[in-house]
Amino acid sequence: MRAHYTRSKIDDIRKKMSDLPELKADEIQLNNKESIAVLADDIAALRKRGYGFEQIADFLRENDFEIRASTLKTYLRGQNPDSGKEPKNNKKKIKKPTIENKKVAKVTVKNETKRQTKKQTAKEDNNQAEFLIAPDRDVL
Predict the structure, then answer these.
(1) Is the predicted pLDDT of residue 86 greater than 50, yes or no?
(2) Which of 20, 44, 94, 137 has the greatest count of CB atoms below 10 A from its CB?
């Protein structure tokens, strides 16, 4: 069963949330990916000095940072803008415009417009609060 909350309860929570103090930089807990992002420049320097991902991962594990070399490599993919390489997954094949492609694009745009209109109508009908989830912070 879903829980339901009154508007006043939500307003109380909102007030309490806005009163929470900002965390200091040393109090913010980072997950592995965020931690590697912070260490990316230092890891890049080690790589330039000849260290491999396995050696760097071993060093991190020796210092109580549990990570595998393959995970480290994945987290660092696309982190270094100076490398001149683009991540493999970001290369898109662009087709030359043809009459068929133009027709498909028009149909797709019409369908998307219809979907958005339906969603807006549904939201207006519900008269319920809408909450947006903020994205995780990438930078400290």
Answers:
(1) no
(2) 44
